[in-house]
Amino acid sequence: MSEIIVAVDGPAGSGKSSVSKEAARRLGYAYLDTGAAYRALAWHCLDEGIDVENADAVAERARSFDYATGMDPDHYFVRVGGEDITPDIREPRVTAVVSAVARVSEVREALNAMFRRMMSEHPRPGVIAEGRDITTVVAPDAPVRVLLTATEEARIARRSAEVSAQTTEATAQQLASRDRQDSRVVDFMTAADGVITIDSTDIDFEQTVQALIDTVRSGLSTEQ
Ligand SMILES: Nc1ncnc2c1ncn2[C@@H]1O[C@H](COP(=O)(O)OP(=O)(O)OP(=O)(O)O)[C@@H](O)[C@H]1O
Ligand SMILES: Nc1ccn([C@@H]2O[C@H](COP(=O)(O)O)[C@@H](O)[C@H]2O)c(=O)n1
């Protein structure tokens, strides 16, 4: 059973998933990508022809969809109904509708209960869980809570380097629009009380991973 929870929140493209996964690998912890569950539900709704603006229909799917994800940082996967949809959930058509699914309160309640169960049942000594509301709603009592941030300019540049199929303008517009929609539901732009901010604007990936690991170690030593 995992006893150490490291909660990481932040805006789109701040490095939450890549940095958390690598830090978890080096610490021997599990890794929980909570955004993947929202994306998988959005993918599932599209696959089933469900109108993502129909909150009741989306909530009904959230209660019944057969979701699985790998929490071993070296064996990451996302499945719905046994089908591997790991790359599919990153498609622009899914990214474009995921915020609509995530604003349904029944969806958030169902997924948050699942995240808490997954964190507490995992056999590794710790779990790094990342998302938008982990430090404030899902695990507000976690011994280490971090807001991973970077300027919008840096985040757009990083995301554009990954996405070659569209212009930087289109990538910038999507990133800003998703943050705008998501921040109506949860505040992930400012650190809540007790949450440590890591700003990666002027540090590279390796330095950011090290900053998170250092924060985990010092947070745990203060706890004891
Ligand atoms: N400090 C850094 N310096 C340079 N590049 C970085 C840094 N941190 C992360 N990256 C890169 O930025 C990109 C976006 O990171 P990542 O996908 O982890 O962000 P995210 O916060 O999980 O985004 P989203 O919420 O949109 O899924 C990746 O290509 C990642 O390798
Ligand atoms: N704790 C969370 C995590 C994610 N979301 C929503 O899911 C979307 C996708 O998240 P990524 O981290 O994979 O980009 C995100 O835009 C949010 O709409 C959430 O609400 N809470």
Automatic annotation (TrEMBL):
Q: Does the keyword Ion transport apply?
A: no
Domain Cytidylate kinase stretches: 6-217
Q: Which EC class, in a word? A: transferase
Q: Where does ATP bind?
A: 10-18
Q: One GO BP annotation here?
A: pyrimidine nucleotide metabolic process
Q: What is its main location?
A: cytoplasm
Q: Which SUPFAM superfamilies does this entry report, sorted A to Z?
A: P-loop containing nucleoside triphosphate hydrolases
Q: Which InterPro entries match?
A: Cytidylate_kin, Cytidylate_kinase_dom, P-loop_NTPase
Q: Which reaction does it catalyse?
A: CMP + ATP = CDP + ADP; dCMP + ATP = dCDP + ADP
> Which key words are in the record?
ATP-binding, Cytoplasm, Kinase, Nucleotide-binding, Transferase
* EC number(s) per entry: 2.7.4.25
HAMAP family reported in the protein's UniProt record? Cytidyl_kinase_type1
Name of the protein in its database record: Cytidylate kinase
